[in-house]
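Continuing from yesterday's entry. The apo prediction looked reasonable, so today I'm repeating it with pyridoxal-5'-phosphate included to see how the binding region is handled. Same sequence as before; SMILES copied from the compound registry.
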Amino acid sequence: MIICANPLTQYQSHGAEILEAIRHVLESGNYILGPEVAAFEKAFAQYCGVSGATGLNSGTDALILALRAMDIGAGDEVITVSHTALATVSAVIAAGATPVLTDIDPDYYTIDPASVEKAITGKTRAIIPVHLYGQAADMDAITAIARKHNLKVIEDCSQAAGARYHGKRVGSIGDAGCFSFYPTKNLGAIGDGGMLVSNDLSFVERVRRLRQYGWNEQRATDEPGINSRLDEMQAAILKAKLPHLDRYNEKRASLARLYREGLAGTDITLLKERPDSLHVWHLFVIASEKRDALLEKLAASGIHAGVHYRVPAHLHAGYDRLCRIPKEGLPQTDALLKKILSLPMYPELTPDEAKKVISVLKN
Ligand SMILES: Cc1ncc(COP(=O)(O)O)c(C=O)c1O
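Holo prediction written out below.
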């Protein structure tokens, strides 16, 4: 059986390092906010090319706390896409703001800057571009719009650890970058984890207080926070895996090249790769009018492809009444929902397995 993502294989390739990291934490007796979290924050900030980072419990919390530390909440509007992990939109709602959902660019499936510009009102405070499937959004256009309208930019980098846009790592371009270390992500923990990065150190420090009830180092507060701590065990595992991230991403890229070459000339649509950027292939998504038939044929051959996403955020029950979409709707988002599928993609997938996927699709 070939599955869409397989975090077990990551454990198998780095078992000794992961077990050593866990043993080290267990024997240290220091399980919450100790040296492993501090060291991983430093290493990850350096990797992203930013001034500072705060380790958190999840990518969702990174988005929520970024908004809170920008004083964005009730009565404010935040622009993002409907075609994303539901987490992006749930974070805006959890922060108390209204998600205003815009359409996507039909070539890259990332946020459409023209759609953003039209959605801005007097209440808009921030834009959350999502670097979807491992590929950066059009950050030049987004940052230009944000500057013109005095809006914050929070990059949702959950699917794109290590990706670059015009030479810069994602997360270092906007006011804040939010990462998820969910086990299937390009840098995956053995459980939940997240990180906020920024070049504004006072902002990073504010998020650091918010992650633990609002406490400062003296356990005094000037605003209430939550509990969203990255734990020592996950930080130690992530710190051990970080030096391998670029190599994992290169493996994903070579599988992506195999898929692209193998599927060229078929009637399957391949997404465009943004020029002068580094795509890290969190997912390898294709589009076809025969999507459901392809999913069935793949499954019959033991290949389990995914669909990211079948239902856009604005159509999810419970979310629909809380989100705003343009009156003309989201035609590009709607058009791709029945067409997309995600082929198996993870660093340990073998070239032969990828070739089998290609051959089933071609047949
Ligand atoms: C685009 C995107 N944003 C946010 C998240 C939320 O991350 P987490 O599951 O760590 O809360 C995810 C991961 O599922 C994601 O893919």
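Comparison notes:
- The longest helix spans residues 7-28.
- The mean pLDDT is 97.
Will overlay with the apo model tomorrow.
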